[in-house]
Design goal:
heterodimer, A: about 375 residues, alpha/beta, 2 domains, disordered C terminus, B: about 350 residues, alpha+beta, 60s Ribosomal Protein L30, Chain: A, Phosphoribosyl-aminoimidazole Synthetase, Chain A, domain 2, seven-stranded mixed sheet, disordered N terminus
Chain lengths: ~375, ~350
């Protein structure tokens, strides 16, 4: 826990919060792009400690949530096959496809296993030559090097029974899509520290300049996050729009070159559909020709299934600060913490759940 | 993915709605969290409904026809691996029943033990488990008065499953239950959280790192008796097993209609457990314990009870971690270490490592 506790020091965090308070003169909307940062902000209750002028909007930086339903349906179909051991990062199991999730597949006899690394899946392929091991390769740039490595290893070991169902997404195209959108309210961006550990932040100065927005590479501990916010607010107040680094202990401008080379060797850019957003051009990676033999979509000719989405939930719009929970027709009626329809009502950190509770409290206090 | 005609809309990502799983049993139904509760309310409460069952405490308290109150509980025990640092399935089976009885203020007396053995299980393994049960029963001061044995075909039971049922006697004047929490009560926790869950996970060998963590598995009836000696008016006792401290406190908040306010800084987490949770993306508040209790007692008794708890081997790291409040009714809030406030929810289904 050393090197973590220091960055959760209440005194240090308070000091930076006071500095933000002294710096801010008017309302600003900031977006943290990464789901890990959203989680940390809500887990530590940071959002309530910020001056009221600062509004945090949660970005589409959760690879689990943005994986398109079509691809989940493919995963479910592949995982249901008798010869397949389907491996995945844990939280992918509860993401629904059309009416089913990986839990249901497992309960119906599918061999679905949680792994912590794709290299575990490669090992499984080696140990189970009579089975076919598929790894659900999701994630942003952060997980790409390890996922790429697994394919390189499988190829080296001639493990023809290992393949990856690839759903890689990249941050910069999504950032461009957000800032280029006519609905955009976001005035500054906290870039994702882990992604930049791999990729560096050389991709961001042109974006900051093109859209006139400050971009600050930010870490994940409370102190990292408030420092990132402070640097973004300083830029906003001073009228600057630059790419800066508030996470220098992990991130350099160039990033991790060998990791980037590995990614480039295995993956090539492709258009990718983001759940609830649509297709963003060149926003993902898929396997290069050389590695197609390990592409689960090629190995398993899975029919395109007509996907079905739950129509009621506007959680995504709520997360982006475009709508308030109370603007949802299901809020407080069909959708309650006891019978949630959406992730934001389910989750401990969910905006709707918080709204449901706190607004109830607020009403009672007024009475 | 071929549908390029679709426009990019920043109207917002639609967060996928988790499924309710109402058609078949999935592992999450055994998590001890919300899905377990939903299953109980849907499938078990309607046919079995009676006031004793619906009280929803760790044991049922019933009045014998000639007077005197008895506590009754039953528990199934499934754990892989059968032996883990700090315990094994045998000790778990005894402590599980003993603790459920102690958590309604009962003195555990008699246990039954029923075994489902998998064909092929080495007898040496069974005997080690049974010896461990004998020692745990001796420590807890209970005797095993009846039992049953069934053998399942190879592949149809994971080594062995154990069911234990227990009966205890509830002394006069003890009224303990989740519904008894009162605003002003102190919330006491007997020690560090998350040790059992992480110890079992590490023992499975699935982690790529070594975690030096021992399960906290222990019978808590001795600790409970010591607490009653200085504070006869204990309102709530509960052992935060599956679902962790967060789920247990939410159950109590719902049963009593009171709110609970926690101080994150006061909740002890062993360094190795904290580090393992950081790496796996778990929150220790949701990780299982098998030798810890939470108690809710009148505010004026806090110091005296903490003193006796800390003198007991199973309560050395006891702290007052928060208080019962009137508002927000039925909810658990926590002041975080850096001074923010967050809602602490019930565990939903299976606890999963997060990717982000």
């Amino acid at each position: 826990m050393k090197f973590i506790t220091e960055f959760r020091d209440a005194e240090l965090v308070r000091g930076v919060l006071e500095e933000i308070q002294r710096t801010v003169t008017r309302p600003w909307v900031l977006m943290e792009i990464c789901g890990g940062q959203t989680h940390a902000i809500l887990r530590h209750g940071l959002d309530q400690l910020l001056p009221p002028e600062i509004e945090l909007v949660h970005g589409p930086g959760c690879p689990v949530c943005v994986t398109p339903v079509e691809l989940i349906d493919k995963a479910l179909a592949i995982a249901s096959r008798a010869e397949v051991i389907f491996t995945s990062y844990g939280d992918m199991l509860r993401v629904p496809g059309s009416g089913r999730d990986l839990f249901s597949v497992r309960a119906s006899g599918g061999d679905v296993r949680v792994v912590y690394s794709p290299l575990d899946a490669v090992r499984m392929a080696k140990e189970n030559p009579e089975r076919h091991v598929v790894f659900f390769g999701i994630g942003f740039e952060t997980t790409a090097p390890a996922n790429a490595m697994s394919v390189v290893q499988a190829k080296k070991l001639a493990l023809n029974n290992y393949s990856m169902l690839v759903s890689h997404v990249c941050v910069p195209p999504a950032v461009r899509a957000i800032f280029g959108s006519p609905d955009n309210r976001v005035q500054a961006l906290l870039a994702a520290g882990h992604v930049c550990t791999v990729m560096g932040y050389w991709e961001y100065p042109p974006i900051a300049e093109a859209y006139g927005v400050p971009i600050v590479v930010t870490g994940f501990e409370p102190l990292d996050i408030v420092r990132g916010i402070l640097m973004a607010v300083r830029q906003l107040e001073e009228g600057r729009a630059e790419a800066e680094n508030a996470y220098p202990r992990a991130v350099t401008f160039e990033g991790n070159k060998p990791a980037q080379e590995l990614i480039d060797k295995v993956f090539e850019p492709c258009d990718r559909k983001w759940r609830g957003i649509g297709v963003i051009p060149e926003s993902g990676w898929c396997l290069r020709e050389d590695f197609r033999g390990h592409d689960a979509e090629v190995r398993f000719d899975v029919e395109a299934i007509q996907p079905e989405e739950s129509p009621l939930c506007i959680a995504g719009q709520i997360l982006q600060g475009l709508k308030k929970p109370t603007e949802c027709s299901a809020f407080g009626t069909q959708c309650t913490p006891e019978h949630p329809l959406g992730a934001t009502m389910v989750s401990a950190e969910g905006a709707c759940a918080a709204y449901y509770r706190y607004s109830q409290q607020a009403t009672e206090m007024h009475d | 993915m071929d549908d390029h005609s679709e426009e990019i809309t920043m109207q917002g990502a639609i967060c996928p709605v988790p499924l309710q799983h109402s058609a078949q049993v999935v592992l999450g139904h055994g998590s001890g969290g919300k899905m377990t509760q939903d299953l109980i309310e849907r499938s078990f409460y309607p046919p079995f409904k009676n006031p004793t069952l619906l009280r929803g405490n760790d044991s049922a308290v019933v009045t014998a026809p000639e007077g005197g109150r008895l506590a009754i509980t039953t528990d199934n025990h499934i754990v892989a691996p059968l032996f883990f640092p700090g315990g094994d399935i045998g000790r778990l089976a005894i402590c599980g029943a003993v603790n459920d009885l102690a958590m309604v203020g009962a003195r555990p007396l008699w246990l039954t033990a029923a075994f489902i053995l998998e064909e092929g299980l080495p007898l040496e393994v069974l005997e080690r488990v049974v010896e461990s049960m004998r020692r745990a029963a001796e420590e807890a001061g209970v005797i095993i008065v009846a039992g049953d044995t069934k053998v399942a075909e190879r592949g149809k039971a994971d080594g062995l499953f154990i069911n234990t049922s227990g009966v205890g006697w509830v002394p006069e004047g003890r009224e303990v239950g989740g519904a008894q929490a009162r605003p002003g009560d102190g919330v006491l926790l007997s020690g560090s959280i998350g040790d059992h869950g992480i110890a079992v996970l590490a023992a499975r060998g699935e982690l790529e790192f070594e975690a030096q963590v021992e399960s906290d598995l222990a019978p808590l009836n001795g600790l409970v008796e010591a607490m009653f000696e200085v504070c006869p008016e204990i309102h709530v006792l509960r052992d935060p097993t599956r679902g962790g401290l967060a789920t247990t406190l939410n159950e109590i908040a719902k049963q009593s209609g009171a709110g609970i306010k926690l101080e994150e800084q006061k909740i002890p987490v062993n360094a190795a457990v904290g580090a393992a949770c950081e790496m796996l993306g778990f929150d220790p508040l949701y990780v299982a314990n098998e030798g810890k209790l939470v108690a809710m007692i009148p505010g004026e008794a806090i110091d005296a009870v903490l003193e006796v708890m800390r003198k007991h081997p199973y309560g050395k790291q006891a702290y007052c971690i928060g208080e019962v409040v009137r508002e927000p009714a039925g909810r658990v809030l926590m002041r975080t270490a850096i001074g923010g406030t967050r809602i602490v929810e019930t565990l939903s289904g299976e606890m999963l490592p997060r990717i982000c």
